[in-house]
Amino acid sequence: MKKNHLKIIIAAFIIGSSFIVHSCSKDEEVTIETIIPTGIAQDPNNFKGDVTNGQVVTLDPMKLYKLNGIVTVKNGGTLVIPAGTRISATAGASSYILVEQGGKFYANGTSGSPVLFTSETPEAGNWGGIVICGKAPINTGTTSISEIGNLTYGGTEAADNSGSLNYVRIEYAGAELSGKKFNGLSLFGIGNETRVESVALLNNADDGMEIYGGTVNISNIVSIGNTNNALSYKDGWIGNATNIFTKRKADGTGNTGITGINNAGNDNASPRSNPTIKNVTFIGGTSGESNGIKLKQGTFAILDNVVVADWSTGINIESDSTVARFNGKKRITNVLFKDTTTEVSLKSSAGATVPVVDTTYTKKPDATGAGNGISTPAWAIGWSGLQ
To answer: According to the UniProt entry, where is the signal peptide (predicted)?
Structure first.
């Protein structure tokens, strides 16, 4: 009787601490061939490469990973980073993490054991950052190409899921690459099934976090000591931002607590940026031009329970359509202005000052903002680096 010959190929990918073996019947002759993966490097001292379609890579929280290049989570790939994992970038602007549309990125820490992304040299801009691309709607086209990584983002899937970030700290990122700057965390067209909660952006060059369209919701965000905006959004973002605590750099540099626009080339592009921003504290410095909140170029929004302290202008609203949306409409409520020179400023698209109607905003002297007025909120203590 002729024997059947079966070749089994075992790919030595790390999936947690397990692997899968396919068996055959006893009358089959078996040849086993082992293939070493050519994708992501598993050596913690040389962490880089691709997480490919169908591959799940889970890091070991007991090891320190040296990010020596680019990690790309390809469409269909999954990168899992458990609580307590530390990733330290070593290659400057050439160290960063990209997540393509259809890739999954899970960085899930705990309050006592956050996931840490840092640099071997503790200075702003010493590595790239984290860039995630999703399939949710944007207003710069049906799809677009990310500033960093040249990845496609955007689409029609409002409920797209790119994974989750929970109890994560990102620090010293924001390097410049080919004339373009990273942020600590860049979210391109991210859908509302993606979880972004309890994320701290500390001492990054450029913005702590920037949102490019999409429908993602964010909560329990700390953004402190970044060289530009603590948080910025554009390109049609429609989501919720809840419990946001930011501080300007101690030397007074850095533009705003939050900057929001609709579209840089078309104030009325659709879908229009229209987030709900609630329970937020923006602490700044009055040197030079500084704005706790700056909304312009067609963005809409709802603001509630806001604390702005130590800014030249508390809330600066510019461009005709944005001014018309807010002036006299009570879409800014329960605001505490502390040590702020000008509470609210309105300017037309032509730059002319627009009188502020007294029903544009309401004040609340005991507004809690992110939870504790101008002081660190209880939910941020410890995991974020704040005490």
So the answer is: 1-23
Contacts of 178 (CB under 8 A, 6+ apart): none
Task: Tell me the CB-side half-sphere exposure of residue 385, using CA atoms within 13 A.
Answer: 20
Query: Which residues are paired to 117 by β-bridges?
Result: 87, 170
Q: What is the pLDDT of residues 4-18, one digit of tens each?
A: 443 333 333 333 333
Host domain of residue 349:
43-380
Alpha-carbon distance 126 to 185, whole Å? 14
The amino acid that residue 302 corresponds to is: I
Cα separation, 195 vs 382, whole angstroms? 21
Residue 5 is assigned to a structural domain of this protein: no
Q: Is residue 271 part of a domain?
A: yes
Say if CB 89 and CB 126 are below 8 A apart.
yes
- Domain assignment of residue 32, yes or no: no
Pairing of strands 176-177, 180-181: antiparallel
Q: Assign 281 a pLDDT band (cuts: 50, 70, 90).
A: very high
DSSP letter (8 states) at residue 355: P
pLDDT digits (tens, 9 = 90+) for 295-346: 999 999 999 999 999 999 999 999 999 999 999 999 999 999 999 999 999 9
User: Structure pTM?
Assistant: 0.90
Strands 217-224 and 195-202: parallel
Burial class (CB in 10 A: 0-12, 13-18, 19+), 256: buried
According to DSSP, the β-strands at 180-181 and 291-296 are unpaired
Cα(182)–Cα(133) distance, integer angstroms: 14
**Average pLDDT value for residue range 208-228:** 97
Residue 1 clears pLDDT 50, i.e. is over it: no
CA distance 70 to 128: 9
Is residue 79 in some structural domain?
Answer: yes
Looking at residue 290, its pLDDT comes to 85
- Local structure of residue 320 (DSSP, 8 states): H
Model pLDDT, residue 295: 98
Number of domains in the chain: 1
Identify whether the C-beta of residue 184 lies closer than 8 Å to the C-beta of residue 129: yes
